[in-house]
Design brief:
It contains twelve helices and 18 strands. The protein has helices at 11-24, 35-40, 43-50, 62-70, 88-94, 104-111, 140-148, 171-186, 196-201, 332-336, 343-348, 367-377, and strands spanning 6-9, 29-33, 56-59, 77-79, 97-101, 121-124, 157-159, 190-192, 209-212, 236-248, 253-254, 260-261, 266-271, 288-291, 294-299, 307-310, 322-326, 355-357. Bound molecules: pyridoxal-5'-phosphate.
Length: 379
């Protein structure tokens, strides 16, 4: 038998999330961010499911864009980091990819091209994240340069990226918005500022296009809240099953380093799922999992292929028992709040040895109990 680790993925919930997020931003174009294998959800099926429901896709690099084109995606595709070298321009042109330009060198590569007939370009401006983009005061010569190139499509588009949008009252948000507005007042064009946190907290700044990543997958980027709080539904349900049960004695250590020590005689379940499958390695004792109708908890350090579960809440289960690691009823946000990683890493970290099944997962049990725990865990 093969390894019992499965990710159920829901097309219904994915489309629900697009509709729910679109409602917040009215007429703005909606770009689905599907970089990093669609945040671990499977870039091909996610994109095929969303084609027609969104106005375009955004990926990190040409390799990812080519996966989309080969999967039959016709919609616009934005290369968020642009091109890494001049030779990529021809591919971008042939595959009708929209390039983000954030470094002077990229503009110079463009100037040397003579074989292109059309190219859609975004100028990226650094408004405060301090990662990619021209400074506001440095935009003018490059804007002019794009105007001189006959193959550059008009209007020219502009984007910037928030650094703290998941924190509504962070002072940097205001600074970034003001800077972006200065840009809008200076240059005619199309404008995109909001990522998921922006869509949730600042829909009034949706402008011409929004770029949604994490929320698309039903996950809240806002600490202390789950996707459900925003009307979103999780796309991924992660399951495995128990492959061993130990009748541990009081004082027995569990797992590497003996991090957990049994406080009494107790049943300990061994689950086939570990950090080698993508479970967060920093998850602490007490991280919730769902076994049958019971909320149980992780005990001991997560191993590469296994983890141990305190089975005292449901002592009569047997090996083969399915266990839900996250999904409806047990938000990934709750699980991640029990470790050191942020929510993006939870789903993005799922490895390809987990089987992906695009089917609606069986409903999760005990919603009320789990959401009570969610609240406690996220305080
Ligand atoms: C990854 C990314 C996004 C999506 O961010 P989320 O917070 O996941 O919605 C949007 N814009 C840019 C430029 C990105 O790199």
């Amino acid at each position: 038998m093969s390894r019992p680790t499965v990710a159920f993925l829901s097309k219904k919930n994915l489309l629900h999330n697009v509709a729910a997020l679109r409602q917040r931003v009215a007429s703005a174009q909606f770009i689905a961010v599907v970089k990093a294998n669609a945040y671990g959800h499977g870039i091909r099926t996610v994109s095929r499911t969303l084609e027609g429901a969104v106005d375009g896709f955004a990926v990190a690099s040409i390799d990812e864009a080519l996966i989309l084109r080969r999967a039959g995606i016709q919609s616009p595709i934005i290369l968020l980091q642009g091109i890494y070298g001049p030779e990529e321009l021809q591919i971008a042109y042939e595959e009708r990819l929209e390039v983000v330009l954030h470094q002077p060198e990229q503009f110079y590569w463009l100037r040397k091209q003579h074989s292109l007939t059309s190219l859609s370009c975004w100028i990226k401006v650094n408004t405060g994240l301090g990662r990619l983009g021209l400074p506001l005061h440095g935009v003018a010569p490059f804007y002019d340069l794009l105007h001189e190139l006959p193959y550059v499509e008009h209007p020219i588009k502009f984007l910037s990226h928030f650094s703290c949008s998941q924190e509504k009252n962070h002072p940097l948000n205001r600074i970034q918005v003001d800077c972006f507005r200065d840009l809008m007042h200076t240059y005619p064009g199309k404008y995109s500022l909001c990522n998921s946190g922006g869509i949730l907290h600042f829909p009034e700044y949706a402008f011409d296009a929004v770029r949604s990543g994490i929320c698309l997958y039903g996950i809240s980027p806002v600490p202390g809240m789950t996707g459900q709080d925003w009307g979103l539904k999780p796309v991924m349900t992660l399951r495995s099953h128990l492959i061993a049960i130990q009748n541990a004695k009081r004082g027995d250590p569990i797992g590497y380093g003996g991090r957990f020590c049994c406080p009494e005689d107790m049943p300990v379940g061994i689950l086939a799922f570990g950090y080698g499958d993508g479970y967060p390695s920093t998850a602490r004792d007490g991280t919730p999992v769902l076994v049958r109708n019971h909320l149980c908890s992780l005990i001991g350090t997560v191993s590469m292929d296994m983890m141990a579960i305190d089975l005292r809440p449901c002592p009569d289960v047997n090996i083969g028992e399915p266990v839900t690691l996250w999904g409806p009823g047990l938000p990934v946000e709750t699980v991640m709040a029990h470790g050191e990683h942020h929510v993006w890493q939870g789903v993005t970290g799922i490895q390809n040895r987990v089987k992906f099944i695009w089917e609606e997962a069986p409903p999760a049990p005990m919603l009320s109990l789990v959401s009570a725990v969610t609240d406690a865990a996220l305080q």
